[in-house]
């Protein structure tokens, strides 16, 4: 028997996107927006593990790195594995369908364990598309939030292929995401249809047509984006991220690409205090995660330190790491002081 899981009283509002630079490096990035500080850090998972998940044990084959914590067991919200597969999970309130009990012909996985299971077992997006048919998402609470999280997932790999998992009932199946963007509810089909409302937006300055014979003074560059939504709702963030991704200048190197993604995510990053929920608590962007798929590296940018912090899946880590390893994040604000000690002629 299944159950529809709704957790509207606690909604995680995040944004994710894929990106490709001109030389073919692929990236998956996300904001983590919530009202609770998870103490997220970068964690590396070794190969060939047995994990005591919330819905029962599962095994992994591949090593991976991402935003995780070693709580009751190893848990991840996003990451990249040694095959170059990247995954992120975001809230999908009011839309998900989980089983109460594991069907006899499936492996039961709690939704909060799906990222780690998929990173540990998928060699590509296509491989994951086949393997999700073998599992069922089970109605099991995540102890650290005391609830069953309503989740959907964005998956991308080094080919640039990007798909979503929206567990809305029936057999699990991945669906194509043609724009490489995911936010929260409504579902992808609705979000793509909603884009048509903004199909006249452009990065060009719009010519003005006189009204009632009155010539109109231009408002300058940027008029092509008049009407671009600026709020923090899921549909608005989806439109804004798609628009910026579409028109952002091309980059070549990995550092330049990461810098561009930072600028795109700036438009959906939530400072503390500007987005209050009914209970008075503030959602904010706890961290931003960047998965560099071709270099098998994970970058984290915490709220209080906008310097990227990186861990890569080196051969040494993959060959010799025996237990999961957490890398605590530096949270102090970094300022590069250019003031000279002395002034010389």
From TrEMBL:
Keyword Lipid metabolism among record annotations: no
InterPro entries linked to this entry: CBAH/NAAA_C, Ntn_hydrolases_N, Peptidase_C59
Domain Choloylglycine hydrolase/NAAA C-terminal: start-end pairs: 14-320
GO-annotated molecular function: hydrolase activity
Keyword Translocase: no
PANTHER family in the cross-refs: CHOLOYLGLYCINE HYDROLASE, HYDROLASE
Record-stated family: Belongs to the peptidase C59 family.
Protein name (database record): Choloylglycine hydrolase
């Amino acid at each position: 028997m299944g159950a529809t899981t709704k957790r509207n009283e606690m909604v995680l509002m995040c944004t994710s996107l894929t990106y490709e630079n001109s030389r073919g490096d692929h990236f998956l990035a996300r904001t983590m927006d919530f009202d609770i500080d998870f103490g997220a850090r970068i964690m590396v998972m070794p190969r060939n593990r047995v994990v005591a998940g919330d819905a029962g044990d599962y095994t992994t084959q591949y090593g991976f790195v991402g935003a995780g914590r070693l709580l009751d067991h190893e848990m991840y919200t996003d990451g990249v594995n040694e095959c170059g597969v990247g995954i992120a999970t975001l809230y999908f309130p009011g839309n998900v369908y989980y089983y109460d009990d594991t069907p006899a012909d499936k492996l039961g996985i709690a939704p909060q364990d799906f990222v780690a299971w998929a990173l540990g077992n998928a060699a590509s997006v296509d491989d994951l598309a086949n393997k999700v048919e073998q599992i069922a998402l089970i109605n099991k609470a995540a102890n650290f939030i005391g609830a069953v999280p309503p989740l959907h997932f964005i998956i991308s790999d080094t080919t640039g292929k990007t798909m979503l998992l929206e567990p809305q009932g029936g057999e699990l199946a991945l669906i194509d995401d043609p724009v490489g963007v995911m936010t929260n509810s409504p579902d992808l089909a609705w979000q793509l249809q909603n884009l048509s409302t903004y199909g006249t937006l452009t990065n060009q300055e719009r010519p003005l047509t006189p009204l009632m014979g009155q010539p109109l003074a231009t408002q300058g560059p940027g008029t092509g984006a008049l009407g671009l939504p600026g709020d923090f709702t899921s549909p608005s963030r989806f439109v804004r991220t798609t628009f910026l991704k579409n028109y952002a200048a091309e980059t070549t190197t990995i550092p330049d690409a990461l810098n561009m993604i930072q600028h795109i995510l700036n438009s959906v990053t939530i400072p503390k205090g500007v987005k209050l929920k009914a209970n008075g608590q503030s959602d904010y962007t706890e961290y931003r995660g960047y998965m560099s798929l071709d270099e098998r590296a994970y970058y984290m940018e915490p709220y209080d330190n906008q310097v990227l912090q990186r861990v890569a899946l080196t051969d040494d880590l993959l060959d010799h790491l025996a237990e999961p390893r957490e890398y605590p994040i530096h949270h102090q604000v970094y300022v590069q002081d250019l003031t000279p000690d002395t002034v010389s002629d």
